[in-house]
Design brief:
Layout: E1 3-7, E2 10-12, E3 18-25, E4 32-39, E5 46-51, E6 58-60, E7 68-73, E8 78-83, E9 92-102, E10 105-110, E11 114-118
Parallel strand pairs: 2-11
Antiparallel strand pairs: 1-3, 3-8, 4-5, 4-9, 5-6, 7-8, 9-10, 9-11
Length: 120
């Protein structure tokens, strides 16, 4: 059974930092491209950042570029999202997503989400 468990969310003030973690089990982590999405109330889920299977390629939404950093530890089967200079508009539920590929196809898995609230 594949599980993605996010942690690290919380309430912070504008300008502060937060680091999210997503621990993955039940699949070969090194074969999965990983990404973080977020969904604010009343809005659609959007891509925040993505990282390739080997960790060498990353991509970011324009709104978080230069403030957020995605990374992964294949030995720990964990992907991280380091968030700096947080803004109220970063408030959302943050989800971890895995796309696992093999010779037989590709499968997508989601975590349950972790709430990030940025407010003074």
């Amino acid at each position: 059974q594949v599980q993605l468990v996010e942690s690290g969310g919380g309430l912070v003030q504008p300008g502060e930092s937060l680091k999210l973690s997503c621990a993955v089990s039940g699949l070969t982590f090194s074969s999965a491209a990983m990404s973080w999405y977020r969904q604010a109330p009343g809005k659609e889920r959007e891509l925040v950042a993505g990282i390739s299977r080997d960790g060498l390629t990353t991509n970011y939404a324009e709104s978080v570029k230069d403030r957020f950093t995605i990374s992964r530890d294949n030995a720990e089967s964990t992907v991280y999202l380091q968030m700096y200079s947080l803004k109220p508009e970063d408030t959302a539920v943050y989800y971890c997503k895995a796309v696992s590929t093999s010779w037989s196809g590709a499968w997508t898995y989601w975590g349950q989400g972790t709430q990030v609230t940025v407010s003074s």
